[in-house]
TrEMBL record:
Residues 48-83, 126-156 are annotated as: Disordered. Coiled coil: none annotated. InterPro entries: Utp18, WD40/YVTN_repeat-like_dom_sf, WD40_repeat_dom_sf, WD40_rpt. SMART domains: WD40. Belongs to the WD repeat UTP18 family. It is found in: Nucleus, Nucleolus. Part of the small subunit (SSU) processome, first precursor of the small eukaryotic ribosomal subunit. During the assembly of the SSU processome in the nucleolus, many ribosome biogenesis factors, an RNA chaperone and ribosomal proteins associate with the nascent pre-rRNA and work in concert to generate RNA folding, modifications, rearrangements and cleavage as well as targeted degradation of pre-ribosomal RNA by the RNA exosome. Involved in nucleolar processing of pre-18S ribosomal RNA. This is U3 small nucleolar RNA-associated protein 18 homolog. The gene is wdr50. WD repeats lie at residues 326-355. Keywords: Nucleus, Phosphoprotein, Repeat, rRNA processing, WD repeat. Gene3D superfamilies: YVTN repeat-like/Quinoprotein amine dehydrogenase (2.130.10.10).
Length: 492
């Protein structure tokens, strides 16, 4: 019993050190999913009360239906808590939830209620990702309603109509939604848009020095939080594999930041021992969460431990390293160079396994691997995107592309496959509307996107698909994160 009390005291003290907003964000967005669902529907077996900054859980079962609950004393009493009657609302972590300028302070109980109200509203109820993979069935009435009024895109999270199990080529059923970052548009270019791997959340980042999180519902896409990095225009930001952290590199800096969403703090990663780079911009996180790969100068790729942020080793190619990606199992790295070659590296030994020519390429600009490991796609400065069989790239020095996508006329800056390997998105940040969606495995371009009537995508900078492809987003030079609903897919 004594050991349990000590552990309990230690846990409560850790929670007490967190700001109120970070604690609520952790519990309602990224924290324990089962507990979160139970809280929302009001059937939690555990009864939670907040005293100051301390979360106390009473999960003791009643001995009988008529037994009165036992009153429990707090683990300890902090004398300072008794004096902190009101919470200052003008603090930068709380000012977003003020209802008026005169509301400069709230009691702790009212603040908690306000935060719960905000995040429950942002969640729109119980999101599909929090239901342990269960899918909401759509009734016949719902299907008829959507057919009659196709403009009513989403009534609730998960209410997405799936029309077939196999995506057909030709025309894609796609709908433009309100911008993902509608509640916080940027006045300068966005460089990143990425969906969270677990939560129904999207992240944006860019030259405005901010990382922002939004709850995706297709209607309002309410802002959850924004983190500002002083004097640090963001070149790229990416979630860690488990979704608990955000890594961000700058436009002109050799240091980078890590935002720990579980701890609610920002970690500065200064100069890394053994790494002689003046600027760190391009990077990738391995799918297994173990490694961080940095694109260096003079053809170097640097492999870091994601846990310790220490340098494990480096790999060197002849030309300048342009882009690099991990294989789905994190055992290999594929990188392309400015001389038209693609290198295949073994992560464990950091030795080159193969080097092949990207057919027709003078300078590589982008590279992507499909989630199922079947395809490798390489983009060049001419706009041509070659799609290769994965095995051919491991064994041959001059593999023939399965297909050359030639719909872009300027440099292919971005390539991404959707999680089901049924769509490949390619884009160029040199021209408006230069985004194409390619059907896999027919390798044909969907004819109706982005459309022919008017320009709608201004200089696309980054793209991403949601975890189950229900949504597709494009970050552009106008500071918008354009959001599209892919109607073929029934889940987020």
């Amino acid at each position: 019993m004594k050991e349990e009390e000590e552990l309990r005291t230690k846990h409560l003290k850790a929670l007490a050190d967190k700001p109120e907003t970070d604690t609520i964000l952790e519990e309602f967005v990224f924290g324990g999913e089962d507990e979160f669902v139970e809280k929302l529907i009001g059937h939690s077996k555990a009864r939670h009360t907040v005293s100051g900054d301390l979360l106390e859980s009473d999960s003791e079962e009643e001995t009988s239906e008529n037994a009165a609950p036992l009153a429990r004393k707090p683990a300890w009493v902090d004398e300072e808590d008794e004096h902190e009657e009101n919470i200052e609302m003008t603090h930068r972590y709380r000012k977003d939830i003020m209802k008026s300028k005169t509301e400069t302070a709230l009691s702790k109980e009212k603040l908690q209620a306000r935060l719960q109200e905000q995040f429950q509203k942002a969640m729109g109820g119980v999101p599909s990702w929090a239901c342990q993979g269960s899918k909401k069935r759509i009734s016949k009435e719902d299907e008829e309603s959507e057919e009659e009024n196709d403009d009513n895109l989403l009534s609730k999270t998960g209410n997405l109509l799936s029309q077939s199990s196999y995506l057909s080529k030709g025309v894609i059923q796609i709908r433009k939604c309100i911008n993902a970052n509608h509640e916080r548009l940027s006045r300068v270019p966005l460089t990143t848009v990425q969906f969270h791997p677990l939560a129904q959340v999207v992240m944006t980042a860019g030259f405005d020095r901010s990382v922002s999180l939004f709850q995706v519902d297709g209607k309002r896409n309410q802002k959850i939080q924004s983190i500002h990095l002083e004097k640090f225009p963001i070149y790229k930001a990416q979630f860690s594999a488990d979704g608990e952290q955000v890594i961000a590199t700058g436009l002109r800096s050799k240091m980078f930041y890590i935002y720990d969403m579980m701890g609610g703090n920002i970690i500065t990663v200064p100069r890394i021992r053994g790494l002689e780079e003046r600027v760190i911009q391009q990077f990738e996180v391995s799918p297994n969460g173990s490694f961080l790969l940095l694109n260096g100068s003079a053809g170097y790729l640097h492999l870091l431990s994601m846990k310790t942020k220490e340098l494990i080793g480096s790999m060197k190619m002849n030309g300048k390293s342009m882009k690099a990606v991990f294989s789905p199992d994190s055992s290999k790295v594929f990188s392309n160079s400015d001389d038209g070659f693609v290198y295949v590296w073994d992560v464990r030994s950091r030795q080159c396994l193969n080097k092949f020519t990207d057919e027709g390429s003078i300078c590589g600009t982008s590279i992507a691997l499909s989630r199922d490991g079947r395809y490798i796609s390489c983009g060049s400065n001419s706009g041509v995107v070659n799609i290769y069989n994965h095995e051919d790239c491991l064994q041959q020095t001059n593999p023939r592309p399965l297909k050359a996508i030639m719909n872009l006329v300027t440099s292919a800056s971005s390539i991404i496959f959707n999680p089901q390997t049924e769509i490949m998105a390619v884009a160029s940040n040199k021209t408006d509307d230069a985004v194409k969606l390619v059907h896999i495995p027919s390798f044909s371009v969907f004819s109706n996107f982005p459309g022919q009537n008017k320009k709608s995508i201004h200089l696309p900078r980054a793209m991403d698909f949601s975890p189950r492809s229900g949504y597709f987003s494009i970050a552009n030079n106008k500071g918008e994160a354009l959001l599209y609903r892919l109607k073929h897919y029934s889940d987020f």
